[in-house]
Write a structure and sequence with these properties.
It contains 28 helices and 32 strands. With about 800 residues, the protein is of the alpha/beta class.
Length: about 800
Amino acid sequence: MTFAVSNATDVDCDQKRTEFVQEWCNQALPERLDDQQVRAVASVHEHTLVTARAGSGKTRTLIARAAFLVRHCHVQPGEILMLAFNRKAAEEMRNRLHLLGVDCPHVMTFHALAYAIVHPEEALLYDDPSEDVPRKAREFDRILREFLRDPARREAVRKLMLAHFRHDWSRIEGSGAAMSRDEGLAYRRSLEQEALDGTRVKSFGEKVIANFLFEHGIPYGYEWNRMWGDRNYRPDFTLKNAKIVIEYFGMQGTPEYDEQMHDKRAYWEKQNGWTLLEYTPDLLVAGDREAFERRLAEDLRRLGVPGRRLREEQIWKNIQDRVMTNLGRVLSTFIGRCRKALWTPEDLDARIRGHQVTDEIESGFIGLASEAYRFYLQRLASEGKEDFDGLMARSAELVEAGTTHFERKSGAGDLRSIRFVMIDEYQDFSPLFDRLLAAIRAQNPDVQVFAVGDDWQAINRFAGSDLKFVTGFQGRFEPSTELPISTNYRSAAKVVEAGNRIMQGLGTPAKPRPGPERGRVAVADMADFLPESPEVSLWRHDILTPAVRRLVAEPLKKGKKVALLARQGYLPFEIHGSSSPRESDLERLLRNIRRGMSQEQQRQLDASTAHSYKGKEADVVIVLDAVERRYPKIHPDWVFARIFGDSPDTIVEDERRLFYVACSRAIEELIILTESGRRSPFLDGLAGCHDSIDWQKLAPQCPSDGDWVLRVGNGEGMGIEPTKTRADMFKELKFSFSGGAWPHWWLPISKRHSKEVVCARIEAAKWVHGCDGLDIRLCDSSGAVVARWVLVDGVPAPVEDGPQGSKRS
């Protein structure tokens, strides 16, 4: 394999080689490559790791290199093996090569290669994205149920999981308790506490309250939104069947927080009929949770709230399905990590013997996981089944033993005849995949490895991937080189700058694409968002739906593709609508946002978790949850993965990368939603490089298919007296008050009544007559005024063509 260059020093030779490949690419390829991409294409004499930032054209580079090898270096297409981690990526590489007139027969996933080597007789378990319940997950759930048929195991699981959901994980040995004051506080602000009923709360004290209410059958809403003047206020707990709110003041002692406590007390004193119950951590810090619960019980009894603790068996029955689903997920992940780390059950047992557990709950779980791992493998063997991890391990064993032939429907090959192995998404490598690659190299020492990956997008540690294969590349492959391709051709300059700031100090920064377009990055503070009365009428305690509807309106009208991205399916805001176990908060939010939109606009709008959106892009990306306990999020289940080396520090590193992945999906505009008082610390690096969303400049975007909304305010120049004199009457009639540019009282009216009937009832209402100055507007749910009156001489006079008539109020 030679290049047409003259004798020169190594530096000159490298430069001339790059210039030659650049000229070849310009003539042979439809897309122009930049200098860094060309250097990667030209690296054909040594093992190469390419660090490719988001949007930098890694697939383009892979394809160009394969085409260069075949069309210029005269490498036979069958001598190239191109490997990806999913079928979509493999198909894209295959199709793009075909468009260049290069048909490489060995473009496939790692699992396809393993299958072609092993040709297993067993039924293969794998997760197909097209299935509602993936096959492997379904089979694992079935095996877990069989595992738990043993009464002793079922009882052990019941005790273990109840203890797990009641435990104070913020104080375990080896985490927050062993850190400095600042580190411990940061850990607790990242730790997501989960109550027995699945409610995610901010602290152990809130979890104790949530558990108490659930265990006593007292229905409640968590952080339901209320309007407090010109701000949003979300008290911790609102009892659904009583006018009682519960606040857990967990950070008393700082002047700012103490002032907030004082303001909240004053607010509730003015709320007619409402009672505030407040609690502080004193008793919990002393370790007396029972005393804390006794005080809560006494306070509720005093206020007439009936509550009798459910029997433990009933509590377990109420949560069993959800808890067992979660347990299955955690055990499946645990076993998958064992498989990808190449740990046999015996290896796991040996590691358990040398592992220092935090407490009996962790000890109980890893003991249970060890049993489940062994049971799972035995069940697969007895039923003639195999999963992909087992298939990968068996393929490596066969290659190690000398089997190098592989055969697929599209053709056969021999690993000894492969000259170039090209790997996509190398940051997702695990010991399991590395074992197969090492086996190939043992049988074929001359094979050259070309790997492309982005260490900033390494977000699959939970699934067993390990960045040591990226950081240790040059130590594992000799001779080798590492090359960057860092220009982000996907995103505008502002978006690229935001990504660099998020990942500052963690590697080579990305460069923006050439051109004048700067794009936009904006941060939206949900604490400043004031929904108007039509929005509150439609969405009630949900402030996220109306806020996002305002944000997406303009880009959708312009035909832009918009993606709503969240850390997980559960959102840190109340989402309006009937919930079901099959529908996540994110799915319900998307349904709310799409309501009343055209089919075309609905197709332009997508919602996804950040994990699932990796590899995709949208013109406008809205990150929905840049708040504490989302970015970063440390779930209490993390302690069950300590045996794999997980720690709060490693989790926060992964969470920062996940946040970067979410933000780097944006092409033109990135909007990040947060909330004052609980901003994600990952936003600190963005100071000075983003705009702020002014909610008042965004008009409400409500569908017109909801109820009527009656709005009553003061006429122009009338001051506040007209509505002030009727305030008690409005309260008695269940009106709500809304501030803003036009303060008014409002009332939803069912649309089962016609406009004519509603208008007649308004004109006949007692509160309408008697004094001048009221401005009365009947609106549809979109906010458009359909009828309007002003009081003149104590009589409602219709306004037909006034300045507000037939327009949005």
